[in-house]
Write a structure and sequence with these properties.
With 175 residues, the protein is mainly beta. It has two helices and twelve strands. The protein is elongated and about 60 Å long.
Length: 175
């Protein structure tokens, strides 16, 4: 399994018991849907290694307490602390309406209410305080904020996102 075929589920942040149980900080709005997993991929070095789960359940709000079949001591658990967990993309819950996963909208056309077709999404920059669509049009890159008041409609059937950009934003890039 390759990382590009998976989504990031969370990170192993600490040990929980002397039996090798660990706590995983989940990167999700719905942690409860991951309580009954049978296995996950753990990132070790440059590889995704399958780990089978003996039991797992929510611990507080967004922490998942996991006992892996292969981990039975504190020393075993120490070796995977700080590792990222991944699941295959097919396990992502389906989203509808204007909700989307960043990987899902790469290649979507962006249609602005005033300017029409303003390009194709080539990436999503979520490393800054305001998440941005990276849109390419005629060898120019536009950065469009990902915000509810800008995104009007996500049409998965025609792979298009309809937006109403702030006055002057598109002109900054395309003029």
């Amino acid at each position: 399994m390759q990382k590009e075929d998976c989504f990031y589920l969370g990170k192993i942040v600490s040990k929980h018991s002397f039996k090798g149980e660990v706590l995983v900080k989940l990167d999700t709005d719905e942690p409860g849907i991951y309580e009954n997993m049978e296995s996950v991929f753990v990132s070790i070095g440059n590889n995704l290694v399958p780990f089978f789960i003996e039991k797992c359940y929510l611990h507080k709000s967004n922490l998942l307490r996991i006992r892996f079949e292969e981990i039975s001591s504190e020393a075993d658990a120490d070796r995977i602390i700080g590792s990222n967990l991944y699941l295959p993309l097919k396990f992502l819950p389906k989203l509808s309406g204007n909700k989307f996963y960043y990987h899902e909208i790469i290649g979507f056309t962006v249609m602005d209410k005033q300017h029409g077709n303003i390009g194709v999404i080539t990436g999503v920059n979520d490393s800054v305080s305001q998440v941005l669509f990276e849109v390419e049009k005629d060898d120019k890159q536009l950065l469009i904020p990902v915000a509810d008041n800008i995104i009007q409609k996500v049409d998965r059937d025609v792979k298009t996102i309809y937006v109403t950009t702030p006055e002057g934003l598109v002109d900054l890039y395309l003029s």
